[in-house]
Model the fold of this input.
Amino acid sequence: MFSQLINKLPHLLQPGAKLNLEKCSDSLEDLNHSVDGFQDDLVRVLTGSDYVADQLSRNPALLDDLLSSDDLYSAYPAKEYCQRLIQSLALVDSEERLQSVLRTFRQREMVRIIWRDLTRHTDMRGTTADLSALADACIDQALTWLYNDCCARWGTPYSVPSEGSPAQPQKLVVLGMGKLGANELNLSSDIDLIFAYPEKGMTEGGRRVLANQDFFSRLGQKLIQALDSITADGFVFRTDMRLRPYGASGPLVCSFPAMEEYYQNQGRDWERYAMIKARVVGGDQQAGAELLEMLRPFVYRKYIDFSAFDSLRSMKEMINKEVRRKGLHGNVKLGAGGIREVEFVAQAFQLIRGGRDPRLQQRELLNILPLLPETVGIPEQAATELVDAYTFLRNAEHAIQAVADRQTQELPADPVGQARIAYSMGYAGWDSFIAELDRQRDRVTRHFADVIAPTEVSPSATDQTSDWLQLWNSEFDDAEGEDFFARHGLDDPQQAWKAFSNLKSSRSVQVMQAVGYERLQAVLPKLMDEVVTTENSAETLERVLLLIQAVIRRSSYLVLLAENPGAMKQLVRLCSASAWFSETLAKQPVLLDELIDQRSLYSPPSKEALQSDLRQQLLRIPEEDEEQLMDTLRYFKSAHVLIVAASDITGVLPLMKVSDYLTWLAEVILEVVLEIAWQQLCEKHGVPLKAPGVPCDPDFIIVGYGKMGGIELSYGSDLDLVFVHDADASLYTAGNKPIANSVFFTRLGQKIIHILNTFTTCGHLYEVDMRLRPSGNSGLLVSSLKAFSEYQEKEAWTWEHQALVRARVIAGSESLRQRFEKVRADILTQPRETGTLADEVVKMRERMREHLGTSEKETEALFNLKQDRGGIVDIEFIVQFSALAYAHQYPELIEFTDNIRILDAMEHTGVMSADDAETLREVYKQYRSVGHRQVLQNRSAMVSPNELEDCREAVIRIWNSQLQR
Done:
């Protein structure tokens, strides 16, 4: 019978179905029950799901159990999952047993849910409701068991008693966010959770007393481990905690007042969007309802809030960039016309009008869409089409995920995978399925554009007949081509024609497919019209066509330029001004996305906005996917460096602000890299201990030296870093694979360098230089604070104390930062004999000039901005000498680490005259401005000696007066 059914399948699917049927042979032999249509259903399920076949192979009795209980063909009543899990957990007596029971329970129910979905014994809403109820039960019952176990060990948490209000027992509240919160979980969703508790207080009745914060943090960690950790039995649900206040850098658990304070004062627009779907999925339901009511004013404004359109438009554009960058056009969730666009349509109106219309304050999308014609006036047909499209897309998502229980929404690229999805969706073949998918996605795109993001007008037909297109399609020889460019105003017709004809004759153009070639022809006329308006038009053309050459094989970027004339205008303007800018874009064409929004292009964000932006981007990435995390960090850095460069090139930002932004960017990235490295190592080895039973906080800091420490980063600057910890080296981490603290922190340093230095397809983040650590390259990668202090006190050379003047803690433990700053101050404020100090500083400077400066033969023709006499390093050495010589009298000389503010302090304390201090400040800024200009034109730090002669002479004069005594 089975062979007949398999033979009816599409030819491509028959081998896989046979293989899965063989896997389940033991299940079929043990089968004592059956129902009408069972064999057809079994073949359909095994054709669509390798996961079900694998589960039935591992547990042959499972299929008969599901049939005999009638669970396979029955809908569960409300709370059924919860009641069944309570029974399964009744005899659990350890966390290990808890994890095993939860995973076994999940496997049984997932087979049932996938079976019912693929055989259409339930609809899409039934599947998502079942999955959400399963997750609710697992979260709540695991939490109940763990809470009781923790109370037995550490006591019950109570609030602080007050007059007329005795202490009350406290329980954890678990908020489900995203699809879980909306009861819309898909077959392979992770679950986004936030943990909170009502009030601060202490535990009572246990073997030891803990603060409520500590108790609930430990409980939360245990709950995550129970659900998320992968054991021999698999996992229950991948658990993501990054939607909590402050993301991965924030506390795991917050009190209600802390939650309210965060969202009211620091909550971002995207967090409003996320909080729409928040629902209490575990713990204290009554307290959770009070928390959601407390947060309601943050989500739903009492006024009609049209700013939501801009917020959602920005979020969608961020996703569009990711789609283009990662080639996610086949993603049914994130691609054009996908699930996310339907969600945005509904949630836009919820955010805008939900505060005035309580009907829109619902979580489930399919409850909201039918309300939109009445509440906001969109056409009935649009709402109906969105409901139909959403249902279709979610069913396709489930078909994709049912195959292997993998968290993906990507359409398969192989013929067998495509045939399988078409079959599960009820289509005769891939072509008919994809035709319907395209029809549904086109509808979504149209309605999304009508509501949120109207598309720009397509290139007009007049461009197609322009002179430039005639030139492209002609067979001009060199003389004719050069004459054409001369008549059209190019400043160097020969250079322009050479660049143009090189592109035209390039192999990449010759082998272009028809669609790509049409897109290129749509871009060229507009591009040329912009280029001829620039002063250095031939040079600009050469630079821009270098970029066109780079994106020819990814013609979606040609569409981006053709349909966004504003972006094209900025591209030409910035490439005209900077060779560095054009080469950066040619190497990383994905950065073209940043040119679309001119508001952000010329408005670099604050450090706080950078932190929020990066956190939001990392939220969409599984924490264990290091490669994707690294690529996202690299794109983030490149995009924001480009934004700073655009503002620099156009004069929007002064020099000092450019360095500020580049330094903030590095700080934000280092903070996140430390979090990622710390989390990965803690998951593997456990948290290092500061003292027995006391976890580190993390008692590790990243110290920036040089330009990083001095808040003076430029484009392409490397990072001079030193790592310091302050934990007992003899203690071990508290984990399943414990290692000594010293080993842990060394590996932490190595992991940080790996994330920063490693080249991926997106390049590297920063070049890291660790040579300023104690004993340089021969020293330990990570020093304890005690060892660092002793080295600086007893062994460090004068030049190392000079470097310490510019040392600043960038990321890590706040308490250790304060202890480090005291060590730094103690070293730098030691009294020194100024004559001896001056001799040592001068000797070091002369050695540097000898090795790094311009040779004597070249000094008349070239001036090295940084290393030659009267250059940048001379100013830095004057500042460092003054700080070391006089900080014991004037501690304010070492309060800051940047040269400008130290010069201010030198003036205020009388260490240097006001005229000399002002001269050095202005010369230093001018040198750095010229240095930035050189970088943006891809030139070295060498300039004509006549260009800055007055500046050099002034620095030499002040050097002699300060150090040549």
Notes: The CA atoms of residues 356 and 808 lie 50 Å apart.
